[in-house]
Amino acid sequence: MRRPALPDPTFSLLRLALCAVALAALCLPAISAAAPATKRVATQAENPTLGRTILTTTKSRTLYSLSAESNGRFICTGTCTSTWRPLVIPAGVKPTGPVKLGMIKRPDGRTQVTFKGRPLYSFYGDSKAGDVNGEGIKDVGTWHAAVTAKTAPQPEPQPQPGSPYPYPY
Questions:
Q1: What angle do CA 150, 153, 158 make, to 5 degrees?
Q2: Residues in CB range of 99: below 8 A, 6 or more apart
Q3: 66 in Cβ contact with 143 (< 8 Å)
Q4: Rounded to 5 degrees, what are φ and ψ at 112?
Q5: 64-to-51, 56, 103, 135, 157 alpha-carbon distances in Å
Q6: Rounded to an integer, what is the distance from CA 134 to the centroid of its chain?
Q7: Which of 109, 124, 110, 106 has its CA nearest to residue 62?
Q8: pLDDT exceeds 60 at position 72
Q9: Helices (H), 53-140
Q10: DSSP secondary structure code for residue 159 in this structure
Q11: Is residue 47 classed exposed, middle or buried when 0-12, 13-18 and 19+ CB atoms within 10 A define those classes?
């Protein structure tokens, strides 16, 4: 009776290496899906005109939201977006900033950044950092800067008690 031939050790190592590569390829998408890429899209700044701390773009432009846009309802679409520019991010990217930010899919399929559930926009009428020219504009709702905190009022100096004697000794 003949003994069966032993498998070639090189072939076995090659098969083991191919299995390891295939397993890694299957696991890699699950790992990358678990940790989405992040991008800093907002900062905050004290705005003396409003007396509040507001969200701004990374280029220091004021970010606004429309009061009528909530619960996934979009009002600003079409030509509105040439005046009020949506803060959008690439698909699969998680927005970060000084406060908790979210995201929502716009009717055109792009992903827009949200704050407290409201989509964020910049205003074409703001030409420099600190401008809040879009504040209070009424449309189908009212546009407001995205406020993160009220700026603490500066305490007024207290009058110093005077001497009861008008003349020095």
A1: 165
A2: 42, 44, 55, 115, 148
A3: yes
A4: -110, 145
A5: 16, 9, 15, 8, 35
A6: 20
A7: 124
A8: yes
A9: 80-83
A10: P
A11: buried
pLDDT digits (tens, 9 = 90+) for 12-54: 665 656 656 666 666 555 554 556 799 999 999 999 999 999 9
Share the mean pLDDT of the chain: 83
Please list, in sequence order, all residues whose beta carbon lies within 8 angstroms of the beta carbon of residue 156, skipping any fewer than 6 positions away: none
Q: Where are the domains of the chain?
A: 37-150
pLDDT tens profile 98-125: 999 999 999 999 999 999 999 999 999 9
Torsion of CA 36, 37, 40, 41, to 10 degrees: -80
SS3 160: coil
- Are 44 and 99 in contact, with CB atoms under 8 Å apart? yes
Q: Which two tokens stand for residue 72?
A: 């996934």
